[in-house]
């Protein structure tokens, strides 16, 4: 019988090994799979993918000194809309914005897809509590991470029905309309 001593070095090596086993997608791999003005949204709700791996989005991002709006859609009418209002939001890198159901005017995320195209039935969610992280934002790429809680439309005031959401958006050469902010101030 072999006995393994749990020395500090062994524990550190084990932790480093486990830290390398992550399910987070590789941004560069996603980016290289896209064409200009294409975005990939890898989003899971309660650890289940919401959009298919094949789904590719296009859209635009509009920014000004007090606000941000990203609107991305695919060919099957799936969509995601991210909006927030915050003075000088672009001055911190990465930008970080909290989302709460108590103040939807400050920040909101709408997530949807068409599940029955014949009868025009969709599945949609609102973020009720969470975070928006804009990790990279420039003319070449935008990388946005989302995490928190979401609710189906109509259930946002019932916390017992909320679901866990986690996702990343990688947008290659995004269409960005900027008003009142120079590229030097905005991009990173």
Automatic annotation (TrEMBL):
<protein>
    <recommendedName>
        <fullName>Lipoprotein</fullName>
    </recommendedName>
</protein>
<keyword id="KW-0732">Signal</keyword>
<feature type="signal peptide">
    <location>
        <begin position="1"/>
        <end position="24"/>
    </location>
</feature>
